[in-house]
Automatic annotation (TrEMBL):
A Pfam family recorded for this sequence: HisKA
Domain HAMP positions: 195-255
Enzymatic class: transferase
Signal peptide start-end: none
TM segment ranges: 17-40, 172-194
Organism per entry: Kutzneria kofuensis
Catalytically driven reaction(s): ATP + protein L-histidine = ADP + protein N-phospho-L-histidine
PANTHER family in the cross-refs: SENSOR HISTIDINE KINASE TRCS, SENSOR HISTIDINE KINASE YKOH
Gene3D superfamilies xref list: 1.10.287.130, 6.10.340.10, Histidine kinase-like ATPase, C-terminal domain
The protein, known as: histidine kinase
Cofactors required: a divalent metal cation
Domain Histidine kinase: 270-485
One of the record's GO cellular component terms: plasma membrane
Length: 488
């Protein structure tokens, strides 16, 4: 049984459905066959009964049975089975005389007499069972002709049943053959039709196989396969489009994952490179310091100062890297509290003016307060980074502005300068980590290339956004931060 179940499961769905259809058809055909055959049997039986009565009536009155072909049969070869007609006379003294009116196969006389005797008592009768004569089954009927004390005469008539039987047999044969052919055609054609109907599913299955056999852990994954074809009905269409959308999702997330991995690799490589530069300098200055300690003591302080400078640069770089890594990991290194952006901006402006006296500076504050929830130290870092850039990447004397205003729901801070600006192709990349527009120039200015990435990550972590518009003479970084609830 289990082997049968296992074999059934191994069949294709189309074959399974076709076989199930065949089994169903077999049951239906069987029922139809049994019902039609038994109806026909009943009908032929009734007809034979009617003929028997007619023949008996004729025989009683004429003592003669018409033997015309077809009269007693059903137009078949067995029409030739002769009918049986016997007159049974009972005379006093228990004398019984049988008179055969027809030529017929030998029939058991005792049975005929017994039947006739019963007819005398209870009117026209049939025997309980058919009587076999000459290998042919006969249906008998007996009826009294004369019933006087001197002469009792009974007519007994028998008609062959072989016509009925032959017709039924033929009917069964015809049924078996036609139903058999119909069954084979049904299963065969059904299998083809079902197979065609199920082809879209087979397509999907082979696509799924392709996806399953693709190494999704490889560096570059090609997931361009999709379930093709059309038709199959609404359900199959829906399944196919859902299936393809699912592969799209897998494809996109794989692409996103490999892009993220690529970015991480690049970031680690850049970070190592950036850390190596100050380290190399420190080692160089340390050698110089050791040499100077022995030969030129006056130079020592200078080398030591340079070493401190480089170490400071390194520590700034490490701070930025750590901050970015934490923001990336959504570890929330922020300590949010209710703050006023105006206060933070005024402090940043003071710091800028003190640190960069060679840049004319204007602070424009529209609202008296811009309350929001944020980490004051990090928000100050955002403004400091933007203001420092405005000074560091422009020539001395270039004007710098810090403007504060509010938009519905947002606090807006703009850091603008009248410097050379950033070209459109670089505008898209300045927020990338370690990206510098002009490497040599920025190296001179000591930038790490992380300033704007830190700004972007911090602003995003505060639920805000930073944008850049720049053309020669007007570079504007705009920071939007959500105002505290209830503030407009
Ligand atoms: P850096 O440490 O080099 O300043 P940032 O991420 O802060 O790194 O800036 C990236 C690059 O964008 C800088 O190297 C510089 O070329 C350019 N940049 C940033 N701000 C300005 C500005 N106000 N004017 C011109 N160029 C700028």
């Amino acid at each position: 049984m289990t082997r049968l179940t296992a074999a059934w499961r191994r069949l294709r769905l189309g074959t399974q459905l076709a076989l199930a259809l065949g089994a169903l058809a077999l049951v239906v055909f069987g029922l139809v066959g049994v019902v039609t055959t038994s109806l026909l049997h009943q009908y032929l039986d009734n007809r034979l009964g009617e003929q028997l009565s007619t023949t008996l009536g004729q025989f009683k009155s004429t003592n003669y049975i018409n033997l015309q072909p077809g009269k007693f049969g059903h137009g078949s070869a067995s029409d030739h089975d002769p009918p049986i007609g016997v007159m049974v006379e009972f005379s006093p003294g228990n004398n019984v005389k049988l008179t055969d009116s027809t030529v017929h196969p030998p029939v058991d006389g005792q049975l005929v007499v017994a039947l006739a005797a019963r007819a005398l008592v209870s009117g026209p009768v049939h025997p309980e069972q058919d009587i076999v004569a000459g290998g042919i089954r006969y249906r008998f009927m007996a009826a009294t002709v004369t019933n006087s004390p001197v002469l009792k005469k009974v007519a007994v008539v028998g008609l062959s049943e072989s016509d009925t039987e032959a017709t039924i047999r033929r009917m069964i044969m015809v049924n078996l053959v036609t139903f058999g052919i119909a069954l084979v055609v049904l299963v065969g054609v059904g299998q083809q039709v079902l197979r065609r109907g199920l082809r879209p599913l087979a397509d999907m299955s082979s696509t799924a196989h392709t996806v399953a056999s693709t190494d999704l852990t490889a560096n570059s994954v090609d997931l361009s396969v999709r379930a093709k074809g059309e038709g199959g009905g609404i359900e199959v269409e829906e399944l196919r489009s859902a299936f393809n959308v699912m592969i799209d999702h897998i494809d996109h997330s794989l692409a996103a994952r490999s892009a993220a991995e690529q970015r991480l690799r690049q970031f680690v490589a850049d970070a190592s490179h950036e850390l190596r530069t100050p380290l190399t300098s420190i080692r160089g200055y340390a050698d110089l310091f050791a040499y100077a300690a022995a030969n030129e003591p006056a130079e020592r302080e200078r080398h030591l100062a340079r070493m401190r400078e480089e170490a400071g640069r390194m520590s700034l770089l490490l701070d930025d890297l750590l901050l970015l890594a934490r923001l990336d990991a959504a570890e929330a290194p922020l300590r949010p509290e209710p703050v006023d952006l105006v206060e933070i901006a005024v402090a940043a402006a003071d710091g800028f003016q003190a640190g960069h006296p060679d840049h004319p500076f204007t602070l424009e504050v529209e609202p008296s307060a811009l309350p929001l929830v944020g980490d004051p130290m990090r928000l100050r870092q955002v403004l400091d980074n933007l203001l420092t850039n405005a000074a560091v990447h422009t020539d001395a004397g270039t004007p710098v502005w810090l403007r504060l205003r509010s938009e519905p729901g947002w606090a807006v801070a703009e850091v603008a300068d009248g410097g050379p600006g950033i070209s459109p192709e670089n505008q898209a990349r300045v927020f990338d980590r370690f990206y510098r527009v002009d490497d040599s120039r920025t190296r001179r200015s000591g930038g790490t290339g992380l300033g704007l990435s830190v700004v972007h990550s911090l602003v995003t972590a505060h639920g805000g956004a930073v944008t850049l518009q720049s053309r020669p003479g007007a570079t504007v970084f705009t920071v939007r931060l959500p105002l505290s609830a209830g503030q407009v």
